[in-house]
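Ticket #4471: structure export looks truncated?
Reporter: QA, pipeline team
Priority: medium

Steps to reproduce: submit the single chain below to the structure queue and open the exported record.
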Amino acid sequence: MERDISADFAGSDRVYVNNAAVSLMPIRSIDAMREFLVSYCSLGPDSAASDELVRTKLQDARGVIAEIISCQPDEIILTQSTTDGVNMVANGLQFGADSNMIIRGMSHEHHSNLYPWLRLATSIRSMPVDENGFFKTDDLRSRMDENTRLVALSHALYNTGAILPVEEAGKMCGQVPFFVDCAQSVGCIEVDASRINCNFMSFNGSKWLCGPMGTGLFYCNRKSGALLEPSAVGGESAILHDGRPVFKEMPARFQTGFRNYVGMVGMESSARYLLKFGIANIRKKNSRLAGILRDEISKIPGSVLYGPDDPDERTSIISFNIAQTDPQKLVDKLQRQGIILAAREIKDAKIVRASPHFFNTEAQMVRVADAIKRL
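Actual output as written to the record:
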């Protein structure tokens, strides 16, 4: 018997299968946010007592994320989105006139891990990808030279669900700075920053971590902080020395004017809920749910499934199309039935994307497939 935890989540009266965009939150996290706001206001928002409350809550948030990705709490910078972290690297790393950087797939990549790099005045070397988005590690090796300033990859892909070989890439990078977009991996598969051997990593709290919108996390290895020039400076991130601001140590170095305290309280509560369930257990349950839905969709005449066949090579994202059916119209029809999916793209091809998480049930997967069959 699978463990049904759907009642622990707000909005569980609908069949919500769009967690790769924004996930549902545990009710306990919403309660924790309310409790924090009441306490914060009761203590006096600008008081020594409230300052200590905030300091403790932010330390707790860094601590639980450090536990999830196997790093030190002071290597976690609190942001508002995955995109914030990408831009911290793009705007903070120094590129010379002869520098180059390496990405994969170009239009196959998510916009947030593409546009900031395209904006740079540096040579971009893109690796070709197969139909699932995988690149050949030999292509990474052949594109690296003494002028390579950065390698930027996604850990898992938003469109096909493919899990990329970032640990192998990290070994190949050596002294070349390595950035990983983990928006589609932290919270649904096990992520170990030390094993990936990356300098920087960015993800958010509102996808697989089941936290509120407006919460993001940026991992910066202690030894790599000096590689980035902070894109902003303020009283929280620097001190005045000889008339000029001097940046503090991490994480304060990059933590300018952060004020989404209540969001981080909710994110921390959700992350602890996930840890209690177990990330490995989440991975197993999500894989089982995805397998059921993929199998049912494959039985529909005219259906096309995207992404790796091997479940070990993909997350729980299921991307598909049904012949003679517009993806957006399919999504709209299902929403009117209380079933939430998303329309996305793989390069120029429009597709339907389902992304179950561990609060979903096997019965819901069958219900989604049956609803699609009846359209």
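Status: closed, not a bug. The export was complete when the record was re-opened. Leaving a note from the reviewer for reference: The chain has eleven helices and 15 strands.
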